[in-house]
Specification:
The complex is a heterodimer of chains A (88) and B (267).
Chain A: H1 2-12, H2 14-31, H3 35-50, E1 61-67, E2 70-76
Chain B: E1 4-9, H1 17-30, E2 35-39, H2 47-50, H3 61-65, H4 71-74, E3 76-77, E4 84-87, H5 100-111, E5 116-120, H6 127-133, E6 138-143, H7 147-162, E7 169-175, H8 177-181, H9 188-195, E8 198-204, H10 207-215, H11 226-238, H12 254-263
The chains are: A alpha+beta (88), B alpha/beta (267).
The structure holds adenosine-5'-triphosphate (ATP) and magnesium ion.
Amino acid sequence: MKLFQQLIGRDRSSARQAKERMRLMLIHDRVDMSAAALDKLKDELVGVISRHVEIDVGAVRIEMTQDGREQRLIADIPLRPSRRRGSG
Amino acid sequence: MPAKVVTITSGKGGVGKTTATANIGAALAQNDLKVVCLDADIGLRNLDVVLGLENRIVYDLVDVVEGRCRLKQALIRDKRLPELFLIPAAQKRDKSAVSPSDMVRLCNELREEFDWIIIDSPAGIERGFRNAIAPTDIVVVITNPEVSAVRDADRIIGLVESEEKGPARLIINRIKPSMVRKGDMLSPEDVLELLAVELIGLVPEDEGVVTSTNRGMPVVMDGRSRAGQAFRNIAQRLMGAEVPFLDLEEGGGLLGRLARRIRQGGD
Ligand SMILES: Nc1ncnc2c1ncn2[C@@H]1O[C@H](COP(=O)(O)OP(=O)(O)OP(=O)(O)O)[C@@H](O)[C@H]1O
Ligand SMILES: [Mg+2]
């Protein structure tokens, strides 16, 4: 049982959980932006871009990542092919 | 060599600033460098007790700043380590008794006399912290491998950068290798990856720290203590030597691998 726990426990160890939680927490601390605020930004961004080009709203991904002590906002916005050109 | 001012600070309280100040100061003095430890934690004086000099205080930092004594009169010499001096904090005053420019002026005067000035900062981001970093050349942030301490360390590291006193160097104190091995404690690698700063020391949890503090005798004076060795290594690194990081698990565990990786220049 002990061995089993150790085998599956590796990834769920409390240290691993601490690190994952902290990674997000520190990014949000550093740029002073909450997860909720990031969601709002995402909605607004989707709104603005949709006015110019058709996008796959469900697949939009926006996240903050850490690069050393610098934070980066990464947006991945898949575009839809134009309808006019489609065979429809 | 021109004098260097080092400030030891942290976000969270109780992570080991005073212990580190006393031991890094004593280790530098063991190398025949003239060192003054300056207690900037006004109102919560402690460095005197850790160094075992509490019975010899006549004047303190605030007395110097307010002109009640000359700087020389507030310097207490450690009889065991004749190159080591202390300027104690005032116990019955608050942080506002001293300003950042007072600290700069005081340290400029001390720079004439000493090789190293080590400042014990209060925890947190208030006035006491600003006083402690105002005159500094090197900021050392200390943390424990524990979520709230690491989070607060991150905040301090950011402030140090925005005050243009960076880059901060990091000490991770009170590491318990057996807990790290079991996945019950953040490893030094985890902490370094999260904080993304330069490491200057890994200090294990060591009961010797407590007993030596009981005696008023810095743990670096105990040749067998692992924590003492860690603090001596930090002093060497401040002096510019390249010292491998302690392999806290004898026989090459996690920390040994980390040490090797750092030595290979993996940053
Ligand atoms: N490596 C260690 N092993 C064991 N005990 C330690 C270690 N480092 C520090 N301690 C203990 O932790 C306690 C807090 O240390 P210390 O007073 O140096 O922290 P501090 O950061 O100066 O605290 P404060 O924020 O209150 O000024 C002390 O009792 C000290 O003996
Ligand atoms: Mg202290």
